[in-house]
Amino acid sequence: MIKEQPILYSFRRCPYAMRARMALKQSGITVQLREIELRNKPKALLASSSKATVPTLVLSDGKVIDESRDIMLWALSQNDHENWLADVNSAHYAAINDLLESNDGPFKNHLDHYKYPDRYPNKPALEHRKLGEQFLAHLENQLSNHRYLCSDAISLADIGIFPFIRQFAHVDSDWFEQSHYHHVQTWLNEFLASELFHSVMKKYPVWTEKSEPLIF
To answer: Which of 108, 86, 110, 105 is CA-nearest to residue 163?
Structure first.
């Protein structure tokens, strides 16, 4: 009996979905991709997860993983041939986790306020950019010491943070390109040019109940 692929509900431009797709692709795990519209979520997604957020991964045994970091960890637990993960008891793992916590918490909050000022009128967007720059400055310092965020090798921190820095940079690309975050710029451009990034950014039609399975 052929085992069915897991089902991934996704939205291409969502940074959370982007990093999950990169981890799945890197791990060589094939999934049935269901690209959705956030303003028109399908009933199948709503039935699978009460959160109904993207990405949501439904495993072949019915287990649902609806946090992007958990999807990344699950994928890499199946196959981590480039050692993106670290031993959970190591200082390297702690450094990766600390960076991801800062990215997913305070930085993501400032990013949202900076990118969508009409939604958050209580504080000027540029003030949130300045607050977000505190994280960029920390990354700049990290990257001045080694090629990637935690060492000279790619880790989960790089893949987990890259999509959000990409989004932050694109809010005002002229400002970002003229900023003094030269190491961050080089690091970001490397991932933007990577085969892995381009492989997960292909545009797919929106999934419906009548769609044929799309293997990703």
So the answer is: 108
